[in-house]
Amino acid sequence: MNSRWLIVIGGLLAAVAGALVFINMPKEQPEALVYQPPRALAPFEIESTAAEGTIDSKALDGQWTLLFTGYTYCPDICPTTLSSLKSILPQLQSYADAPVKVWMISVDPQRDSLERLREYTGYFGDNFVGVRAEHPQLFPFVRDLGLMYSVPEEGEENYLVNHSAAIILVNPDGKRLAIFNATHEPGAIPTVDMEQLVRDFALLAG
Hints:
Organism: Idiomarina fontislapidosi
Strand content: 15-25%
Radius of gyration: 22 Å
Oligomer: single chain
Shape: globular
Binding site for Cu cation: 74, 78, 163
Order of helices and strands: HEEEEHEHEHEEH
Number of domains: 1
Family: Belongs to the SCO1/2 family.
Helix content: 25-40%
Protein name: SCO family protein
CATH architecture: 3-Layer(aba) Sandwich
Strand order of the largest sheet: 1-8-7-4-5-6-2-3
Pfam families: SCO1-SenC
């Protein structure tokens, strides 16, 4: 066997070895909690600023949806989260074939009318949707997502609502795919790391 053939064979062996190393390299994994398999949502009916009347789980089909709890009187977490999501939405859309939407689930049905929600979420753009329901329908919906909120005492008018700061990702099949938990730093409001959310979404939607 002449030297030319030895070089060719050596090159082929090196290519095969390189391919095997690449295949066996650990793949980058999302830092979010990913549900495997994705979890179907329990049936629900809820009012939406994007529709006349109530909607159900079919409204989640055919799009990527980021859901979080909030309310229009929220002094910090909600406007911060919405502003941050607005800033990264073009990046998220660049990784997805289906539309990317944001749902803010109002946990203050006493004060958040559909019209108030429409005005509030509309400030952030057409891809931002407000949804609401009275507590008997709202609480099971929020709990099924793995989130929580507090209910004010009867008769209270000026109050804060404690609620989860996490963001839920629902895939275009209308199933819960991941949860992005908020970081809690002393002296700071709990927020989701938006840069990490973008990185994780790129992996999940790709």
